[in-house]
Write a structure and sequence with these properties.
This protein has 10 helices and 9 strands. A hairpin with a 5-residue loop joins strand 3 and strand 4. The radius of gyration is 29 Å and the shape is elongated. By secondary structure, the protein is of the alpha+beta class.
Length: 430
């Protein structure tokens, strides 16, 4: 009975730590979003602009925070500084937070956990923008490269340098956080587990948002390989951290050997040979996993580029009025941003005149759009005679505002994907 009390108390301590760790992760994410958006807002006001509103997302990563602002006649330099202001604030925050945690000892647990998470989220915001933005600019980086001609290579190099430096320092800090409740050996083991769980979280979120990159069985196999590789890489990273910091030799590969290999070793087999074979096997496994990860990322980014950058315009170009059978000539333009041919399966849209429904149309057998080019063609739409009263009303009012709104359908790795559009024009009867 005397032995069960300390065990029970230890479990309660673990539970309290885990609860605080998870809750503060959510709380500090919101704080990090506020700091990021405050950077944009501060630079806007410094340049004499007006803040129209700041939206902080509580549903990240499904929705994103943003700042609405207005600035009369901004220069490219001002636009660039406003775009990158959030990343600047993130960088300052994570450097300050990590410096405090690395220098100060004996900090209260809740304070240490809070500063760690704030530093972590600030690090993640800046690094993701830079690393992903080097391949497929989005958000702040997309605005930045839109006004300033900065080579993507520079952005990517800066992102990967910060990724390596911050991962190194945050791993040391995280081990110190786990030492609050764990012994040194288990605290060390928890660091790579943390990175693997984090990796799992982001991949699961991506799958929920965009779907599976490959059939389910293949995806499951890829995920197992990727997470195993992530754990092994994390262990090796911690070993490197300890060696560089002079804290000892760090972790050894022998912890990963299977029981059967240990038995063979005790029977006289060369341990060094087993280790070499093991290292080769793990390196091959890690290389295959890295290539598969790259394939998945490429699939996601290429589809993201297609969805975000494909431009579809369907506008009224010419109108022949006949109350029995009116004809609307429409102009269709499709811009293909991808390096391959783009074939839309169909385009569906509603035709409205002065906000009132006229007809629903479907265009099939569309021509393919060559890489990074635009195709244009015309299409005749016969307006139904039972909507003649809408034409008569427009004729009396002298108002001819056409709205063509609908969706283009294209086949991607997620199945049939929707590309939405809405075009307005003012075309009077010929």
């Amino acid at each position: 009975m005397s032995l069960s009390i300390p065990v029970r108390e230890k479990r309660r301590e673990y539970a309290r730590f885990l609860l605080a760790f998870v809750f503060l992760a959510f709380l500090m994410k919101i704080a990090g979003e506020i700091i990021h958006e405050a950077g944009h807002a501060l630079f806007v006001t410094m340049f004499g602009g007006k803040i129209l509103g700041i939206n902080i997302s509580f549903e990240w990563p499904f929705t994103l925070s943003h700042t609405a602002w207005d600035l009369a006649d901004p220069t490219n330099f001002q636009l660039a500084m406003i775009a990158i202001a959030g990343i600047i604030f993130d960088t300052i925050t994570t450097i300050a937070g990590q410096s405090v945690l690395l220098r100060r000892k004996g900090m209260r647990p809740l304070m240490a956990i809070s500063i760690f998470w704030l530093s972590f989220w600030s690090y993640l915001n800046s690094v993701v923008y830079l690393v992903v933005g080097a391949f497929q600019p989005f958000g702040d980086i997309q605005y930045l490269v839109g006004v300033v001609n900065i080579p993507k290579l520079w952005i990517g190099v800066l992102g990967f340098v910060l990724l390596a430096v911050y991962s190194y320092s945050l791993s040391i800090i995280l081990r110190g956080v786990f030492l609050i409740v764990l012994d040194p050996k288990r605290a060390t083991d928890m660091v790579p587990i943390f990175w693997v769980v984090l990796h799992l979280f982001f991949i699961m979120i991506t799958i929920v948002q965009y779907g599976l990159p490959t059939p389910p069985t293949i995806t499951a196999t890829l995920l197992v390989m990727i997470f195993t590789w992530s754990y092994i890489s994390g262990r090796w990273l911690m070993s490197l951290v300890y060696r560089l910091s002079g804290a000892g030799e760090g972790l050894r590969f022998t912890r990963f050997t299977w029981p059967r290999l240990r038995v063979l070793t005790t029977q006289g087999m060369d341990k060094e040979r087993i280790l070499r074979v093991g290292y080769i096997a793990l390196f091959s496994f890690a290389l295959a996993s890295a290539l598969l990860t790259g394939y998945m990322v490429n699939q996601y980014t290429s589809t993201y580029s297609l969805i975000m950058n494909t431009n579809i315009e369907v506008e009224a170009a010419y109108f022949e009025l006949d109350l029995d059978q009116s004809v609307l000539n429409i102009s269709v333009k499709v811009y293909n941003p991808t390096p391959g041919d783009l074939s839309l399966r169909r385009i569906e849209f509603d035709v409205k005149l002065n906000g009132k429904f006229m007809t629903h149309e479907i265009i099939r057998n569309l021509p393919s759009a060559p890489p990074e080019e635009q195709i244009s063609f015309s299409q005749l739409v016969m307006l139904p005679s039972d909507r003649a009263f809408t034409l008569e009303e427009a004729l009396r009012e002298g108002k001819w505002d056409w709205t063509l709104q609908g969706t283009g359908y294209v086949e991607t790795l997620f199945g049939e994907t929707l590309l939405r559009f809405k075009c307005t024009s003012n075309v009077e009867p010929a």
